[in-house]
Amino acid sequence: MNESSKLFRGKHRNPAVAIVRLLSVGLLMVRFSDSATSIRQRPFGTPMHKVEFTQKGYIQFLRWELPVPEFTEFTFCLWMKSNDLTHSHPIFSYSKKERERLVRSWIGPHGGSVHLEIGGEQVLAAASDILENRWYHFCLSWESQAGQYGLWVDGRLLARGHSVETIGHAIPSGGDMVLGQEYTDFDKGLDDGIEGSVVGFNLLLASAFDASDHLEAAYDAIPAFFDWRSDAAIPQRADHHHGTISNEPRGRGQLVVVDHAASATELAEWEEQPAGLRLIKLSYVRCEIGRGSPFIAGGSMLISWTRTPVRVFGGAVLKNVEGACGHF
Question: What PROSITE patterns does the record point to (predicted)?
Answer without folding.
Answer: PTX_1, PTX_2
